[in-house]
Specification:
Phosphatidylethanolamine-binding Protein; globular; disordered N terminus; disordered C terminus; 6-stranded mixed β-sheet; alpha+beta
Length: about 210
């Protein structure tokens, strides 16, 4: 959707970013419980680029996730995926999942897509576009690298969530009931026009002349 924006907009907004400090992971004061949960994915490594498949430039499907290390007293878990580098006052929410079971768990690839978005126990809350499913990464061209934080929280209770909870509702519950957290970061950058031209020229040079 944002791939058609002029590159100049991305450059102008380059220094306007929500910031890591505004992520839910950093706003909830867990102290010893912070980073106690290990979050991983078969699709990408921590702080490594997200494959195009999972972005707005590809199929836009949600990546697989796994997590371990929830405390024994946990009663449920919550997943929130936020873009720390969105040019907005607060991080852009790409997914919220509530009602996850309180133990080692996983979400398969595509579980949060529009046609899916619900499991036997869990359900999707609202992303920043007020949709109850995965919002694929879609950074402005030329804005630089965006960091997408896949944040998992263990809760001491099973809250009575609204039908489709949003960020503010989830943050209030986390402040009151979060026991531990974990975070996995994937990156994505949509290059501007000049970068695409350079990449195309490099590819043509690497390929070399066609043989007769």
């Amino acid at each position: 959707m944002l791939e058609k924006l002029p590159d100049v907009i991305g450059h102008v907004l380059h220094d306007q970013r929500a910031g890591l400090d505004k992520l839910a992971f950093n706003k909830v004061g867990l102290r010893s419980g912070m980073a106690a949960i290990t979050v991983s994915s078969l699709a990408f490594q921590d702080h490594a680029p997200l494959p195009v498949l999972y972005t707005a430039d590809g199929a836009g499907t949600s990546p697989s996730l796994q997590w371990t290390g929830l405390p024994a007293q946990a009663q449920s878990a919550v997943l929130m995926v936020e873009d720390a580098d969105a040019p907005t006052p607060q991080p852009l929410v790409h997914a919220i999942v509530v009602g996850l079971p309180p133990g080692d768990g996983a979400l398969r690839e595509g579980a949060l897509d529009e046609q899916e978005g619900r499991g036997p126990e869990w359900s999707c809350g609202l992303n920043s576009f007020l949709q109850a499913h995965w919002l694929p990464p879609d950074p402005p061209p030329g804005h630089g690298v965006h960091r997408y934080a896949f944040q998992l929280f263990a809760l001491s209770t099973m809250p009575a969530w609204s039908a489709k909870p949003g960020r503010e509702e989830v943050l209030e519950v986390l402040q009151a009931h979060a026991l531990a957290s974990g975070c996995l970061i994937g990156t994505y950058e949509r290059p501007d026009g000049s970068q695409k031209i350079e990449q195309a020229e490099l590819s043509s040079v690497t390929a070399g002349p066609l043989s007769a």
